[in-house]
TrEMBL record:
Residues 238-294 form the 4Fe-4S Mo/W bis-MGD-type domain. This is Formate dehydrogenase subunit alpha. One of its GO terms (biological process) is respiratory electron transport chain. It comes from Sphingobium fluviale. Keywords: 2Fe-2S, 4Fe-4S, Iron, Iron-sulfur, Metal-binding, Oxidoreductase, Repeat. One of its GO terms (cellular component) is oxidoreductase complex. Pfam families: Fer2_4, Fer4_7, Molybdop_Fe4S4, Molybdopterin, Molydop_binding, NADH-G_4Fe-4S_3. Gene3D superfamilies: 2.40.40.20, 3.10.20.740, 3.30.70.20, 3.40.50.740, ADC-like domains, Dimethylsulfoxide Reductase, domain 2. Residues 96-135 form the 4Fe-4S His(Cys)3-ligated-type domain.
Length: 949
């Protein structure tokens, strides 16, 4: 599409069933009651000059440019703060208004440098456009500049500059930081011509302040005061393409604004239903990895992992790979081959990989990182509710009265949704946080949880059972809902179980380390506080009792009637952009798309008829089973698309041993990642900017991903998989991802009504989309559960086999940080590393003192499976006995210490509970030095001096 700025109606949309009819400049218009005159004028095709107003901010009324005349009303009211009234007659352009607006604008321009021709915002500046709109052609007052304020340009932020000389004190950036982001990092200092924006304390700049670099202030600024460095360097964009972010599971929609083949900026799209015009530092700014020098764009092969890589043509790479795969299949059988799909790739690409494994390799040995993070969600919610996904859309949180947040840290991992949640909390909703660590939402300058239950890692089930005990024994359950919507006999069995005195908060306090009085108060609040919504993350699923915890959450929601309407529900916050989609597309060894078991003959027959092959009726191997089988000699070849299992999967030594034992490892990715250390074939991948397709976010929202630029490697990922399939003789003939989605739709009941054409028309759709729900399903289980009656499951607390003891007395849990993403392959190759350039170990002051440790010291982190070293951060964010780190940097390789313990139902690894010891260290361990040397050796490319990490 061409480049046109997003329409701005000046004030937010008002939802009201009452309609008001008025006349604006002789044109009649009907709008919802409560709409501002400014917005009504814009919707009628008019345009009232404005500077302080924007439709994602509350009306402010400070710039005095949007004055109008209203028949029967004295003066010239501001149109942004004046609501419409029945029969109102408005005039937006009269000689009087023209004179007033020119005078106001002249004052603004008198305090603004007139360097438009050389300004980076030239022809992309609201101040410039508004001056022309009001007809200002001359300024009588001289410009003194901002030098009298002693202020220079603040270039501390890696992505944007702040030039106070161009500030017009409209406060839009301050209000955006408050109302949209919820950080409140910016303030307005001074008065009159001395007014200026401040990023916190007087000594702060934008880098050192509380600013989280979400870009809301940059987007709100009507001048070049806050300007992206890329715009200054490249120039004004000339076209824009709407696409979907490839970072977390929020699924933000962006306008990728281009100049030629260069991406200038990513601007959050106001019509994006997941993000509503907001963004975070990753999606907004951290796209530079797409053209990083480390990116590999040519296929490469080698005979053994101790040899350098050899660049080859696509034809040679694909022919070589297909020949090796077919030979291994002929010698060792179909079950010696497998594949791993990616939660970062599109639905269409994921679907093709699992199809290649099942129809081409001939086995069901397909798995995905989605099992490594959220498979207990799929299992637990399917057992209780009948469907393997969250129940609400993100907007639903604005109707919640009580938010129960367990095992999730949305301000770091899902920041755009966290901003919406914070907005609701500032409106008065109550928050319960169940987390062993004091996350930001527990207490920050503008948000504080009603209750923080800092449980012992691994005791989620015990905490939730104790909450259920309070709800049942104090008769706080919603009996009418349970009798109508759930199996009453199952409920009685469950209620008897949780009511047992051994499940009381007092009895379990020794296990959970949560004070019984606090737990009781939290349970009462959730049960009686109005609409109760539960949001959870990997701190729930990545446990040996992950599936049990998900079912315990579902039990709690059903017992209190918090299912099936706005403001309630059970909602997993998915980690990666397409974790939900990877599950939906059939990436598990036991399930075809739509969560239907491979052993079901009718389902299998549907796929066999469509694909023209016979499918193995037996489930295949999960990733850890593939690795075990490789060490045993029965699993020989692996195709890995867009995943880095050596860094992201547990017990790094075990992963390395399995990969090393294989005859053929094919890595299909952007960079020579850690898994590629053990690969024999490297197929270069494409970024989300270089492909068409769809992602499905955490709210089941299917959204289009549109190609912004041509793939640097020559092919989108779906084309690479198709080319490999055809080299093996499969004869696929897709010409566009829309054809793959058509296949998904005809084979998958929940996607039956999905097509690219429908998505173009609707913007997005939330599955199920079928005859019963032609426009999708924002809220699930409204009239009844998908499975029929809600299923209560008794979830007994069973302690993990991973125990602390004299040798390993501390418990390690892991998580993410705002600036980095997952294994860091993308964000580490951007300026985001300025905020987090290494993983650190958070340790409580008591534990640090006992070990003679201070912040910044090197420490040895050891478990029963391995050890690594990293620097310490002494903080009371973690409880005594608990330590915490992130896993973004391969130099730390934090998963070398995690164990093979996993969820009883799904094999989801127990990342969140590892018994460890922490001791002083002199620096990187021998293992880290050996690993680094092996990685450097493995990344050699013939004809290149050295391949960078």
């Amino acid at each position: 599409m061409g480049y046109e700025p997003q329409a701005d109606f000046g004030t937010p949309e008002v939802l009201s069933e009452i309609t008001v009819t008025l006349t604006i400049d002789g044109r009649p218009i009907s709008v919802p009651a409560g709409t501002s005159v400014m917005r009504a004028a814009a919707e009628s095709g008019g345009s009232i000059p404005k500077l302080c107003a924007s439709d994602n901010l509350a009306a402010f009324g400070s710039c005095r440019l949007c004055l109008v005349e209203v028949d029967g009303m004295r003066g010239t009211p501001a149109s942004c703060t004046t609501p419409v009234a029945e029969g109102m007659v408005v005039h937006t352009q009269t000689p009087r208004l023209q004179r007033l607006r020119k005078g106001v604008m002249e004052l603004y321009i008198s305090d603004h440098p007139l360097d438009c021709l050389t300004c980076s915002a030239n022809n992309d500046c609201e101040l410039q456009d508004t001056a022309a709109q009001v007809g200002l052609r001359d300024v009588r007052y001289g410009y003194e500049g901002a030098s009298h304020l002693g202020l220079g340009v603040d270039s501390s932020n890696p992505y944007f500059d702040f030039d106070p000389s161009k500030c017009i004190a409209c406060s839009r950036c301050v209000r955006a930081c408050d109302e949209v982001q919820g950080t409140l990092a910016l303030t307005m200092d001074g008065r009159g011509f001395a007014s200026t924006i401040s990023a916190g304390q007087s000594a702060d700049n934008f880098l050192s302040s509380e600013c989280v670099s979400c870009g809301a202030c940059v987007q709100a600024c009507p001048t070049a005061t806050l300007q992206e460095k890329a715009v200054k360097e490249i120039g004004k964009p000339e076209r824009a393409v709407i696409t979907t972010c490839a970072y977390c599971g929020v699924g933000c929609t962006f306008r990728a604004e281009m100049r030629g083949e260069q991406l200038v900026r990513m601007v959050p799209w106001k019509d994006g239903k997941a993000n509503r015009g907001h963004s975070c530092v990753k999606g907004r700014f951290a796209w530079g990895y797409a053209h990083h020098k480390d990116r590999i764009t040519s296929p490469m092969i080698r005979e053994s992992i101790d040899q350098p890589w050899r660049e080859v043509s696509w034809d040679e790479a694909l022919s070589h790979t297909a020949t090796r795969l077919n030979a291994i299949k002929a010698q060792h059988g179909a079950r010696a081959l497998g594949g791993i799909t990616s939660s970062r790739c599109t639905n269409e690409e994921t679907f093709l990989v699992q199809k290649l494994v099942r129809a081409g390799f001939g086995s069901n040995n397909v798995d995905t990182c989605a099992r490594v993070c959220h498979s207990p969600t799929g299992y637990g919610l399917k057992q209780t509710f009948g469907t393997s996904a969250g129940t609400q859309d993100f907007d639903s949180v604005m109707d919640a009265d009580v938010i129960l947040l367990i095992g999730a840290n949305p301000t770091d991992a899902h920041p755009v949704f966290a901003s919406r949640m914070k907005r609701r909390l500032r409106q008065g909703a109550k928050l319960i946080v169940i987390d062993p660590r004091r996350i930001d939402l527990v207490r920050s300058p503008h948000v504080e949880a009603a209750h923080h239950l800092p449980l012992q890692p691994g005791t989620n089930v015990a905490v939730l059972t104790a909450m259920a005990h309070v709800i049942v024994t104090e008769k706080l359950a919603d009996e009418a809902f349970i009798r109508e919507r759930c199996d009453w006999d199952e409920y009685q069995d469950w209620a008897a179980f949780v009511a047992d005195e051994r499940h009381s908060p007092e009895a379990l306090e020794a296990v959970t380390r949560v004070p019984a009085a606090d737990l009781r108060a939290a349970a009462r609040l959730y049960a009686t506080g109005g609409n109760g919504a539960i949001y959870y993350g990997l701190g729930v699923t990545e446990h040996s009792q992950g599936s049990s915890t998900v079912m315990a959450i579902a039990n709690l929601a059903m017992a209190t009637g918090n299912i099936g309407r706005r403001g309630v529900g059970v909602n997993p916050l998915r980690g990666q952009n397409n974790v939900q989609g990877a599950c939906d597309m059939g990436s598990f060894p036991h399930e075809l798309s739509g969560y239907r078991h491979i052993s079901d003959g009718a389902t299998r027959a549907l796929f066999e008829a469509d694909w023209g092959v016979a499918l193995d009726p037996d489930p295949g191997l999960r990733i850890p089973n593939m690795l075990d089988a490789a060490v045993d000699g029965s699993f020989r070849a692996l195709y890995v698309q867009g995943e880095d299992i050596l860094q992201s999967d547990p017990n790094t030594h075990h992963v390395a041993a399995g990969l090393k034992a294989m005859d053929l490892v094919i890595v299909h990715d952007l960079f020579l990642n850690e898994t590629a250390n053990y690969a024999h074939v490297f197929l270069p991948g494409s970024t989300f900017l270089e492909k068409d397709g769809t992602f499905t976010n955490a709210e089941r929202r299917i959204q289009l991903v549109r190609k912004v630029m041509e793939p640097a490697n020559g092919m989108s990922d779906w084309q690479v998989t198709q080319a490999l399939a055809n080299a093996m003789g499969l004869g696929w003939s897709y010409s566009h991802p829309r054809e793959i989605m058509d296949e998904v739709a005809r084979l998958t009941p929940s996607f039956a009504g999905v097509s690219f054409a429908r998505l173009e028309e609707a913007g997005s759709l939330q599955w199920p989309v079928n005859a019963a729900h032609p426009d999708g399903s924002p809220i699930m289980h409204e009239d009844g559960f998908v499975r029929g009656k809600g299923h209560f499951v008794v979830t007994d607390y069973i302690p993990t086999d991973e125990r602390t003891g004299p040798r390993y007395p501390l418990l390690l849990t892991t998580g993410r940080i705002l600036s980095q993403y997952n294994v860091g392959a993308q964000t580490r190759r951007t300026e985001n590393s300025i905020w987090h350039d290494e993983d650190v170990l958070e340790i409580h002051p008591t534990d640090a003192e006992n070990r003679g440790l201070n912040t910044g010291d090197w420490v040895r982190l050891a478990s029963r499976t391995g050890e690594t070293t990293l620097r310490a951060l002494v903080t009371d964010r973690v409880a005594p006995g608990v330590v915490y780190t992130t896993f973004h940097h391969p130099s730390t390789q934090a998963n070398v210490v995690t164990t093979d313990y996993s969820d009883w139902a799904t094999n989801c690894p127990e990342y969140k509970v590892t018994a460890v010891q922490v001791a002083p260290s002199n620096g990187p361990s021998d293992w880290q030095r050996d690993y680094d040397a092996q990685a450097r050796q493995s990344r050699r490319i013939a004809g290149h001096a050295e391949a960078a990490e």
